[in-house]
Design brief:
211 residues; alpha/beta; globular
Length: 211
């Protein structure tokens, strides 16, 4: 287990958060992800990083993609499995944290990372590098996260400045990719009971250069 997490015991914390009968972040996909459906061709392989209770991975499977997903929380993964069964789709689900996942080189056409901001700068460096490496040439990375302005809104997020995203951070971290879109913007989230209200957001789509 890595030691630069926001929580001292991340598995226990997320198990407790996901332990209620409802879905903490809802069952609909993240809006920024869904807005890029045109990049998500049926039959492509996709990895959903730290996908919690499965709202994004299940939606991706509903679009006809071949989906791997992992999360640190066994409770969250069990709920994701149930959500997939209810939707009538197959998602290859695993209980892993971001360091223990088996990061295979050039394995995925798409990597999706939505609000994965509970690791500190060193964990983030490792994770971002692994996401780049696991993309196939020509593959797409789709990221959504909070910016420092979220500290003013206080409508969720880690609450720590060094866990939040900026455009400069993303351009540096993903210099090996072609950035297709990078935007910092204010929006209103309506995702379950946790992501609700005015929010300071960053969205990025980047492409790994073709071989």
């Amino acid at each position: 287990m890595a030691h630069d997490n926001y929580f001292s015991d991340p598995m226990q914390t997320w198990d407790a958060r996901f332990g209620g009968p409802d879905f903490l972040f809802g069952t609909a996909p993240n809006a920024y992800l869904a807005s890029h459906l045109a990049l998500l061709a049926a039959g492509k392989s996709v990895l959903a990083v730290a996908d919690g209770e499965g709202r994004n991975s299940v939606w991706l499977a509903q679009q006809g993609l071949l989906v791997d997903a992992f999360d640190i929380s066994p409770v969250g993964v069990a709920k994701a499995d149930e959500l997939a069964r209810r939707a009538g789709v197959s998602v290859n689900l695993h209980v892993n944290d971001c360091d223990s996942w088996d990061w295979q080189p050039e394995a995925y056409d798409v990597v999706v990372a939505i609000f994965i901001q509970f690791g500190g700068p060193e964990m983030r460096r490792r994770l971002f590098a692994r996401m780049v490496a696991t993309l196939k040439p020509g593959g797409y990375l789709i990221v959504q996260g909070y910016t420092p302005k979220q500290l003013d809104y206080k409508t969720d997020g880690p609450g720590l400045l060094n866990h939040l995203y900026t455009g400069d951070m993303m351009r540096e971290a993903f210099a090996a990719l072609e950035i297709i879109e990078l935007c910092e913007y204010d929006g209103v989230l309506d995702e379950g009971t946790q992501h609700v209200g005015p929010s300071a957001l960053l969205g990025m789509v980047a492409r790994k250069p073709a071989a």
